[in-house]
Amino acid sequence: MFNPVARRKSLFDDRPVEISELTYIIKHDIAGLNRQLAELQAFTNPAQRGSRQNRADEHRGNVVTILQTNLANATTSFQEILEVRTQNMKASKDRSEQFLSSGNATPALGEQRTSSPLYNLARNVPSAPSAPLHTHGQSTLQKRTTASSAAAHEDEVSSAEKGFLALNMMETGGPQQQMMLQEFEDQQSSYLQQRSNAIESIESTISELGQIFGQLAHMVAQQGETVQRIDDDVMQVSDHVEGARRELLKYYASMSNNRWLMLKIFGVLIVFFLGPSLHPFIPMGEPIPPNVEHAVSVSLPHWQDIVDYEEGRLGDAMQTGYPRFFIHRSIQKLASVMQCKFARPGENTMLFPTSQHASQCRDFVRAQEAKRTGSSELVPVRIVRFCVLAQKAQDAGAPSSVRASATNDSETPILLYVVLFPERLFPLAKNFWQHTGTGISSRLADECLRIIAYNQSLLGDCGNLVPKPSAPRRSSVQGIPARGGGFGRSRYQSRQTDMESSMSSSIPSVLGSEEHMVPEAGQDDDEELTLEQAVFVEERYGRNLPFVYASRAKLALRRRIAGTLVGDAKLDEETMPAENAVSARQVAGVCEDDVFLFSCGMASIFHAHQTVMLERELSQQGVPITQESASKALRKMKDPSFALGPFSIGKSVCFGFPYTDTLKILQKWGPGCHFFGHGTDDDLDRFEALLQSQSADEPKIVALFCEFPSNPLLRSADLARIRRLADQYDFSVVIDETIGNFVNVEVLPYADMVVSSLTKVFSGDCNVMGGSLVLNPTSRRAQSLRAVLQANYQDAQWPEDSIFLERNSRDFVARIGKIDRNAETIADYLQAHCATPTQPSTVRGVYYPKFVTRNHYEACQRKQPYGEETTSSAGYGGLFSVDFATQAAARVFYDTLDCAKGPSLGTNCTLACPYTLLAHYAELDWAQSVGVSPNLVRVSVGMEDTHALLDIFRKALEAAEKADAP
Predict the structure, then answer these.
(1) Can you give the pLDDT at residue 512?
(2) For 292, which of 10, 38, 120, 548 is 20 to 30 Å away at the CA?
């Protein structure tokens, strides 16, 4: 309707009021639509809503874009109509002005006409004013006109005299015409005023439309940026797909040329079809999972394999092992390089990622040797800092092909701390490595070996210091490409601690020029290709984050552990800040700032023990505990690791039978510990009696350490009572929640600190190590413990390990639910075959939280599901132990069990081991004295099909019963 009315060009049939009203309505409608679209765009923006973008968000964004486009088109059309209307009104105004100018000339014409005889019929001829016609000579026509005028006047007079009515038209016509003209001028003036107002309104509307167009232009610019990013992503994806295609072709060519590999595949297929099994058999010494370079477990499929391993008869048959018990091959190679470079004759080496851990190793070796010999003289132990940094290819005059692939875009060095000690003290250094778990990561060792090999390829051989067999398998003389095989930027950026950063600027880089790390001639040219493919597959198909996002991976880990990030949420630095996050844990205020990451679970326990001892030491000195005061006190302490003594603080308490290295830490660092190995209520009574018996001048208990539930007996302590005792007698409580895990139980309200091994069910994939410590922010000791932790904490978790932990843990809540259900089903089955007072059985007992100290476990069991990913209630965990009546039955059961068998727990696959034999082989009698039977088989249940698992355990139990039959 508005379009034809506004475009109409007629001068006398306009409807200006209607046009103005429509213009006003349309203008305000457009402004309202523009405002509503802006609000809709802000609402559908996933970055502002703090949620990850999905297809629904993309659809909503597309709808907003379409609406914005339609509004822009409508606004453009409206502006064009207003411009046409403005032109029409200007044209009308021009016509009106022309008309008025001609009207203003009329009075002059009238004045001119009044002098004519035709307009002065009632006047006397003599009195008639001279007209312009009389200014010249009288012509014949003038004479005739004068004569005729006179005659007409005479006739008029004569007629008047005769009584006729004569109308003098010209006499009255002048004023009437002027009045009509005046009225017409007023109408025209009013019309022009209306037109002027309309034009001003249109110009105002056009100005407002210009502002709207500016806003729309801003929106279009944003959409353009989004389209550009999408285009860049599409191009990147296209490059990745093309890269993947090339790599697959290389894989295909490699496999086609590898006859042995084809034979192996053919053999695997034969075994698969001829001997179906839930778990393929993994030979002794092979990693679990198979073919995983950084696997955490190792296959020990038979009972006798455990005995041979403990007796040291396996030798080189062990390709790998549990990382704290077996030093990874890559770490051994790197240690060999460091030994050749720095060791004196008769010295051995141990490698650590931070100066703090190296110093603690030195103190431990010296203290243990001094205790053994009784000598006050400390043994010589040296620490060398080794800086690993990739040499720039262009500095070495390398070919352009090498320079293109060099990792020269990261200037952050990797700092290694090499502890050198007499060879005879290697068992002590190995004990420190095993107990504390603070050694370097195998992935860190791989990276150092790659960089050293790359630098060697640029600088050339400077001496055969290392035998050729120790060269890394994945090195290449053609350079050290960035992680990701050229599909991305350099992935490695080592995060330094504050102490390391302050020192690195003054230390020259050691480029490994003396190590002979060049591969042998004839070595497989595709070795480096394997590395590129492995990282490419992990990032593109394994959902690994790129290595440049290692800091974000650590942030995600800390948030998941704190309970503020549950599941596979979008990872971003701008996600919900810590102070606004809501934790799934049942402690108010817990956030990622309360979580500290470590290289493994034992490292978190070791640092918790160091923290409580240092906090008590500073408290006894009367020092106000802040981060600054704690740092200053650490620098002044002669024995900051509490390894040498003497000690002024009290002992710790180990409550319940723990994992072996937990007890070793409490015994070997500090003044020792009180051990309550059964972990029962009777033990708790004895512990309370100990507290009551302490005199006023006797050092008080520093802390109580316990597992919930314990490993391997799965007993749960009365945490509420322990908390009351801790508040009454002023000691800290440290709880290891690895077995129960924080999806099933919530122990943080009862603890000052909670530690956990992230290697286990949190990761699940059995290919990376990690540990965590959570500080209870509501604890009355939280402030002092936090100050000591911050003063003494160095982040030693290698970034690549953080990447794998973050990837593996995205679905840990759902995995734990499946594992809980499987474990409860299998435990119920075995419990049904357990011996009773009236019915003997091969199975003497099943240790599972559902059957052992159930009341204490359920007191801490979650009442509500953890997060929103699962609606199922909390379970009893995925670990149980089976105690057999005889060793023969236990041996047959273990050998028959068709699952993965080796150390560790919490894996996605079912994993079993004769725990007492593996962990306490040299102290079986002592373990049995606290209720841990040598015939015990520990089982960590995985995510396999429940019915298939039941069939496996049924067959193993039947075989054990036959072996135990008289």
Answers:
(1) 37
(2) 548
Residue 627, domain member (yes or no): yes
Give, as one character, the DSSP assignment of residue 868: S
Q: What is the residue whose two structure tokens read 């009862």?
A: 750
Closest CA to 602 of 642, 670, 655, 662: 662
Q: Which of 238, 268, 286 is the last residue of a domain?
A: 238
Task: Output the six-digit token pair for 137.
Answer: 């000579």
| Together in a domain, 770 and 882 | no
Q: Where are the strands (E) in 163-296, listed by range?
A: 287-288
Q: How far is CA 271 from the centre of its chain?
A: 41
We report the CATH number of the domain holding residue 748 as 3.40.640.10
Number of domains into which the chain is organized: 4
- Tell me which H or E stretch contains 201: helix 169-257
Q: Do 338 and 478 reside in the same domain of the chain?
A: yes
* 795 token code pair: 């982040």
Give the global pTM.
0.66
Stated as kind and residue range, the H or E segment containing 703 is strand 703-707
* Percent of residues in the chain assigned helix, strand, coil, to nearest 5: 55, 10, 35
For 900, the enclosing helix (H) or strand (E) is: strand 900-901
Give yes or no: residues 362 and 509 share one domain.
yes
Closest CA to 325 of 244, 434, 409: 434
Q: What is the pLDDT of residues 246-262, one digit of tens each?
A: 878 777 766 666 655 56
Q: Are residues 627 and 692 in the same domain?
A: yes
Q: What is the pLDDT of residues 763-809, one digit of tens each?
A: 999 999 999 999 999 999 999 999 999 999 999 999 999 999 999 99
Residue 496 scores a pLDDT above 60: no
pLDDT of residue 944: 94
pLDDT tens column, 302-349: 999 999 999 988 877 888 888 988 899 999 999 999 999 999 999 999
Give the 3-state DSSP-derived string for 635-686, with helices as H, strands as E and coil as C. Answer: HHCCCCCCCCCCCCCCCEEEECCCCHHHHHHHHHCCCCEEEECCCCHHHHHH
- Is 66 a member of any domain? yes
pLDDT band, very low/low/confident/very high, at 558 (cuts 50, 70, 90): very high
DSSP string, 375-410: -SSPPP-EEEEEEE-PPPGGGGT--HHHHHHS--S-
Q: How many CB atoms lie within 10 A of CB 832?
A: 10
Percentage of the chain modeled with pLDDT above 90 = 47
Q: What is the pLDDT of residue 274?
A: 42
Q: How far apart are CA 415 and CA 389, in angstroms?
A: 9
Instruction: Specify the higher pLDDT residue, 725 or 149.
Output: 725
In a domain, 294, yes or no: no
CA dihedral 393, 399, 401, 406 (to 10 degrees): -10
Question: With bands split at pLDDT 50, 70 and 90, how would you rate the model's confidence at 859?
Answer: very high
Inter-residue contact 937 to 912 (CB < 8 Å): yes
Regarding whether 504 and 406 lie in a shared domain, the answer is yes
Q: What is the Cα–Cα distance from 361 to 295, expressed in whole angstroms?
A: 25
Length of the chain (residues): 966
Helices (H), 782-939: 782-792, 799-808, 812-832, 854-860, 887-896, 915-919, 924-929
Flag whether 150 is in a domain.
Answer: no
* Structural domain harbouring 65: 2-106+176-238
Tell me the C-alpha distance between 663 and 920, whole Å. 12
The domain boundary, picked from 200, 221, 238, lies at 238
Work out whether strand 936-940 and strand 911-913 pair parallel, antiparallel, or are unpaired.
Answer: antiparallel
SS (H, E, C) 559-613: HHHHCCCCCCCCCCCCCCCHHHCCCCCCCCCCCHHHEEEECCHHHHHHHHHHHHH
Q: What pLDDT is attached to residue 506? A: 32
pLDDT for the residue numbered 160: 44
CATH number at residue 882: 3.90.1150.10
Same domain for 800 and 833: no
For residues 523 and 583, state if they share a domain: no
Q: Are residues 494 and 397 in the same domain?
A: yes
